[in-house]
Specification:
- By secondary structure, the protein is α+β, with helices and mostly antiparallel strands.
- The chain has helices at residues 4-7, 57-69, 104-107, 132-149, 163-174, 180-189, 215-221, and strands spanning 13-23, 28-34, 44-45, 47-50, 77-82, 93-103, 118-121, 193-200, 208-213.
- The strands form 2 sheets. Strands 1, 2, 3, 4, 5, 6 and 7 form a 7-stranded mixed β-sheet that branches. A two-stranded antiparallel ribbon has the order 8-9.
- The protein starts with a helix and ends in an 8-residue tail after the last helix.
Length: 229
Protein backbone atom coordinates (compact mmCIF):
# COMPACT_ATOMS: atom_id res chain seq x y z
CA UNK A 1 0.00 0.00 0.00
CA UNK A 2 1.40 3.36 -1.05
CA UNK A 3 0.53 5.67 1.87
CA UNK A 4 1.93 8.63 -0.06
CA UNK A 5 -1.37 8.74 -1.97
CA UNK A 6 -3.15 9.29 1.35
CA UNK A 7 -0.77 12.00 2.53
CA UNK A 8 -1.14 13.98 -0.67
CA UNK A 9 -4.92 14.23 -0.38
CA UNK A 10 -6.83 17.20 1.03
CA UNK A 11 -7.79 16.82 4.67
CA UNK A 12 -11.51 17.00 5.48
CA UNK A 13 -13.07 17.24 8.94
CA UNK A 14 -15.92 14.85 9.78
CA UNK A 15 -18.70 15.97 12.14
CA UNK A 16 -21.91 14.50 13.52
CA UNK A 17 -25.19 16.32 14.11
CA UNK A 18 -28.06 14.92 16.18
CA UNK A 19 -31.72 15.66 15.48
CA UNK A 20 -33.76 14.69 18.55
CA UNK A 21 -37.55 14.75 18.24
CA UNK A 22 -39.65 14.55 21.40
CA UNK A 23 -43.38 13.99 21.93
CA UNK A 24 -44.89 15.62 25.03
CA UNK A 25 -48.38 14.19 24.66
CA UNK A 26 -49.65 17.06 22.52
CA UNK A 27 -47.02 18.14 20.02
CA UNK A 28 -43.71 17.14 18.42
CA UNK A 29 -40.71 19.18 19.53
CA UNK A 30 -37.09 19.28 18.45
CA UNK A 31 -34.17 19.74 20.85
CA UNK A 32 -31.82 22.63 20.08
CA UNK A 33 -28.86 24.30 21.78
CA UNK A 34 -27.04 27.62 21.61
CA UNK A 35 -23.80 27.10 19.67
CA UNK A 36 -20.85 27.56 22.02
CA UNK A 37 -18.12 28.66 19.60
CA UNK A 38 -17.49 30.65 16.44
CA UNK A 39 -18.58 30.87 13.71
CA UNK A 40 -22.25 31.53 14.56
CA UNK A 41 -21.61 31.42 18.31
CA UNK A 42 -24.75 31.95 20.37
CA UNK A 43 -27.14 30.98 17.57
CA UNK A 44 -29.50 28.00 17.68
CA UNK A 45 -28.09 24.73 16.46
CA UNK A 46 -28.56 21.00 16.42
CA UNK A 47 -26.30 19.02 18.77
CA UNK A 48 -23.08 18.70 16.82
CA UNK A 49 -19.37 18.04 17.16
CA UNK A 50 -16.35 16.53 15.45
CA UNK A 51 -15.48 12.86 15.14
CA UNK A 52 -12.25 11.95 16.92
CA UNK A 53 -9.33 10.38 15.06
CA UNK A 54 -9.81 7.00 16.75
CA UNK A 55 -13.57 7.22 17.22
CA UNK A 56 -16.40 5.45 15.41
CA UNK A 57 -19.01 7.85 14.03
CA UNK A 58 -21.82 6.18 16.00
CA UNK A 59 -19.80 6.56 19.20
CA UNK A 60 -19.10 10.20 18.33
CA UNK A 61 -22.81 10.93 17.93
CA UNK A 62 -23.59 9.36 21.32
CA UNK A 63 -20.72 11.26 22.97
CA UNK A 64 -21.72 14.64 21.50
CA UNK A 65 -25.33 14.18 22.54
CA UNK A 66 -24.33 13.25 26.10
CA UNK A 67 -21.89 16.16 26.44
CA UNK A 68 -24.31 18.79 25.17
CA UNK A 69 -27.61 17.64 26.65
CA UNK A 70 -26.98 14.93 29.24
CA UNK A 71 -29.01 12.44 27.19
CA UNK A 72 -27.57 8.92 27.16
CA UNK A 73 -28.57 5.50 25.85
CA UNK A 74 -30.71 7.02 23.10
CA UNK A 75 -31.10 4.88 19.99
CA UNK A 76 -30.24 7.02 16.97
CA UNK A 77 -30.27 6.14 13.30
CA UNK A 78 -28.00 7.55 10.63
CA UNK A 79 -30.08 9.89 8.52
CA UNK A 80 -27.96 11.35 5.75
CA UNK A 81 -24.52 12.70 4.89
CA UNK A 82 -24.37 16.46 4.32
CA UNK A 83 -21.26 17.44 2.41
CA UNK A 84 -21.60 20.62 0.38
CA UNK A 85 -18.17 22.21 0.09
CA UNK A 86 -19.31 25.53 1.58
CA UNK A 87 -21.69 24.23 4.27
CA UNK A 88 -19.43 25.33 7.17
CA UNK A 89 -18.09 28.89 7.22
CA UNK A 90 -14.89 27.86 9.01
CA UNK A 91 -13.63 25.07 6.78
CA UNK A 92 -14.28 21.88 4.82
CA UNK A 93 -16.55 19.79 7.02
CA UNK A 94 -18.65 16.77 6.11
CA UNK A 95 -21.43 16.04 8.60
CA UNK A 96 -23.23 12.76 9.23
CA UNK A 97 -26.68 13.47 10.64
CA UNK A 98 -28.43 11.20 13.14
CA UNK A 99 -32.04 11.27 14.29
CA UNK A 100 -34.06 9.91 17.20
CA UNK A 101 -37.64 10.09 18.42
CA UNK A 102 -38.25 9.98 22.18
CA UNK A 103 -40.93 10.60 24.77
CA UNK A 104 -39.58 13.91 26.06
CA UNK A 105 -41.31 13.52 29.43
CA UNK A 106 -39.13 10.48 30.16
CA UNK A 107 -35.96 12.51 29.77
CA UNK A 108 -36.89 15.98 31.00
CA UNK A 109 -34.69 15.70 34.10
CA UNK A 110 -31.68 14.61 32.03
CA UNK A 111 -31.60 17.63 29.75
CA UNK A 112 -28.52 19.67 30.60
CA UNK A 113 -28.84 23.45 30.96
CA UNK A 114 -25.11 24.05 30.50
CA UNK A 115 -25.63 24.83 26.81
CA UNK A 116 -29.20 26.15 27.06
CA UNK A 117 -30.69 23.00 25.54
CA UNK A 118 -34.35 23.67 24.82
CA UNK A 119 -37.34 21.99 23.20
CA UNK A 120 -39.02 23.88 20.34
CA UNK A 121 -42.33 22.95 18.67
CA UNK A 122 -41.71 21.97 15.05
CA UNK A 123 -43.97 24.80 13.93
CA UNK A 124 -41.97 27.38 15.90
CA UNK A 125 -38.33 26.50 15.36
CA UNK A 126 -35.93 29.46 15.28
CA UNK A 127 -33.43 30.20 12.54
CA UNK A 128 -30.66 27.58 12.56
CA UNK A 129 -26.98 27.74 11.64
CA UNK A 130 -25.43 26.46 8.41
CA UNK A 131 -27.57 23.73 6.75
CA UNK A 132 -29.22 22.56 9.97
CA UNK A 133 -32.67 23.57 8.66
CA UNK A 134 -32.12 21.18 5.73
CA UNK A 135 -31.13 18.46 8.19
CA UNK A 136 -34.28 19.05 10.22
CA UNK A 137 -36.51 18.99 7.14
CA UNK A 138 -34.86 15.76 5.97
CA UNK A 139 -35.40 14.19 9.39
CA UNK A 140 -39.08 15.27 9.48
CA UNK A 141 -39.70 13.67 6.10
CA UNK A 142 -37.95 10.44 7.14
CA UNK A 143 -39.94 10.33 10.38
CA UNK A 144 -43.25 10.68 8.56
CA UNK A 145 -42.34 7.96 6.08
CA UNK A 146 -41.26 5.59 8.83
CA UNK A 147 -44.20 6.12 11.17
CA UNK A 148 -46.61 5.43 8.30
CA UNK A 149 -45.29 1.88 7.96
CA UNK A 150 -43.80 1.02 11.36
CA UNK A 151 -45.29 1.06 14.88
CA UNK A 152 -42.70 3.41 16.37
CA UNK A 153 -45.46 5.78 17.45
CA UNK A 154 -46.69 3.35 20.08
CA UNK A 155 -43.35 3.63 21.90
CA UNK A 156 -44.19 7.25 22.66
CA UNK A 157 -47.52 6.56 24.32
CA UNK A 158 -48.35 5.10 27.73
CA UNK A 159 -48.78 1.31 27.84
CA UNK A 160 -52.56 1.83 27.68
CA UNK A 161 -53.91 4.72 25.63
CA UNK A 162 -57.10 6.02 24.05
CA UNK A 163 -57.73 6.38 20.34
CA UNK A 164 -57.80 10.15 20.89
CA UNK A 165 -54.27 10.04 22.32
CA UNK A 166 -53.11 7.96 19.37
CA UNK A 167 -54.70 10.38 16.91
CA UNK A 168 -53.05 13.30 18.72
CA UNK A 169 -49.68 11.67 18.11
CA UNK A 170 -50.21 11.19 14.39
CA UNK A 171 -51.61 14.70 14.00
CA UNK A 172 -48.52 16.07 15.75
CA UNK A 173 -46.15 14.13 13.49
CA UNK A 174 -47.90 15.15 10.27
CA UNK A 175 -48.78 18.65 11.52
CA UNK A 176 -52.34 18.34 10.24
CA UNK A 177 -55.81 17.47 11.50
CA UNK A 178 -57.11 13.96 10.77
CA UNK A 179 -60.76 13.01 10.42
CA UNK A 180 -61.68 11.15 13.62
CA UNK A 181 -64.03 8.65 11.96
CA UNK A 182 -61.64 7.76 9.13
CA UNK A 183 -58.66 7.52 11.48
CA UNK A 184 -60.51 5.24 13.90
CA UNK A 185 -61.77 3.02 11.08
CA UNK A 186 -58.30 2.73 9.57
CA UNK A 187 -56.38 2.02 12.77
CA UNK A 188 -58.90 -0.57 14.00
CA UNK A 189 -58.97 -2.32 10.62
CA UNK A 190 -55.28 -3.20 11.03
CA UNK A 191 -56.22 -5.27 14.11
CA UNK A 192 -53.05 -4.57 16.09
CA UNK A 193 -54.84 -2.96 19.02
CA UNK A 194 -56.43 -4.75 21.97
CA UNK A 195 -59.44 -3.02 23.50
CA UNK A 196 -59.56 -3.02 27.29
CA UNK A 197 -62.66 -2.89 29.48
CA UNK A 198 -61.19 0.04 31.39
CA UNK A 199 -62.05 3.63 30.44
CA UNK A 200 -60.27 6.96 30.71
CA UNK A 201 -62.74 9.37 32.35
CA UNK A 202 -60.63 12.44 33.08
CA UNK A 203 -61.45 14.22 29.82
CA UNK A 204 -65.14 13.30 29.49
CA UNK A 205 -68.01 12.03 31.61
CA UNK A 206 -68.78 9.18 29.20
CA UNK A 207 -65.13 8.14 29.04
CA UNK A 208 -63.04 6.52 26.31
CA UNK A 209 -61.91 2.91 26.24
CA UNK A 210 -58.22 2.19 26.67
CA UNK A 211 -56.28 0.15 24.11
CA UNK A 212 -52.89 -1.58 24.14
CA UNK A 213 -50.63 -2.36 21.20
CA UNK A 214 -50.65 -6.06 20.28
CA UNK A 215 -46.99 -6.47 19.36
CA UNK A 216 -47.21 -10.23 18.93
CA UNK A 217 -50.03 -9.94 16.38
CA UNK A 218 -48.21 -7.12 14.61
CA UNK A 219 -45.17 -9.36 14.09
CA UNK A 220 -47.38 -11.93 12.38
CA UNK A 221 -48.68 -9.29 9.97
CA UNK A 222 -45.45 -7.35 9.50
CA UNK A 223 -44.50 -9.12 6.27
CA UNK A 224 -47.77 -7.95 4.69
CA UNK A 225 -46.60 -4.34 4.56
CA UNK A 226 -48.98 -2.68 7.00
CA UNK A 227 -49.72 1.03 6.59
CA UNK A 228 -50.81 2.80 9.79
CA UNK A 229 -51.95 6.01 8.11
Amino acid sequence: MDIRKYKSRDKVLVAVDCIIFGFDGKQINVLLIKRGFEPEQGKWSLMGGFVGKNENVDDAAARVLKQLTGLADIYMEQLYCFGKADRDLAGRVVSIAYSAFINSADYSEQISTDHEARWFPLSKTPSLIFDHKQMLDKAKKALREKVANHPIGFELLPFKFTLRQLQNLYEAIYETKLDKRNFTKKILSIKVLKKLKEKEKETSRKGSFYYVFDRAHYRKLEHEGIKFV
